[in-house]
Amino acid sequence: MSVPSLPASIRFIQRDWLSCNQIIGFDGQAGNRHATLIDTGYGKHAAQTLALVTHVLGGEGLPIGALRHILNTHLHSDHCGGNALLARISGARVRVPQAEFDTVCLWDETRLTFRGTGQRCERFCADGAITPGEHLRLGGLDWQALAAPGHDPHSLILHCPDEQLLISADALWENGFGIIFPELSGDSGFREQHDVLELIASLPVRTVLPGHGRVFHDVPDALQRARGRLAALRADPRRNARNSIKALIKFLMLEFEQLPMTGLIETTAGATIMRGAADQLGMTLAQALQWAADDLLAQGQLGRAANGDLLNAEPAGA
To answer: What is the DSSP letter of 176?
Structure first.
């Protein structure tokens, strides 16, 4: 659970690509020790997330009720899908990016992108907001929340100057970053992602705790790879659309594990973000889904059941 080189008060839980990673910080003294959780994974894994967090707290001699706060870097379903269950069991208060607070209170699933991506999230309540520029206490350390639009217009990253730590969410991974969703709806996202990468480059950072993938330390190399990927997307925006369709199908197959092609089409019928990507490719959504499924089958990312259904798969050697 713990990663060498992290402060003893910080725990990092690496997950897969359906649920984001979790970060737990411990604060307070004996008798009043409590924890804060960053992001909660996807709804399908909510019980598993609860078990993992309970295990980490138990290792510190704490019950699940010691979880006092849940903070979301952004509100894509793979980062907040466990909010409802964990808050209900622990009593933790949930804080979301300020720009999303009213949307959560209204539970507008279109603006929250759940409907647009064909994904789901159990409704939860937001008890407070995190404002860009705000200073937070996590794991006995001072962190600053910084705006990180690009992948998501309202995303935040958290920086700890004293320990040179960065909780980067989906703004920077060891090998890239998350889908640039705004571009699929005709909004600006590439420029914002560029600015976020430059912001990260300007910060003192020696260790990155990403939203997906392992903790990493070679920040300059990661930034170089991310810049290269972004340059390729800006040169050919259709690449972003193609990657997005395939990534969203793969996400759905990680969730459902087996679906007929007709089921995939029905599941995504109202997915406006996916339809926007299809429009950029000059295809109907059904055509784009078929193209992407065929490509994922060729890559070994999907397989076929005996009855012809699509199956989630991993390529040989992965």
So the answer is: B
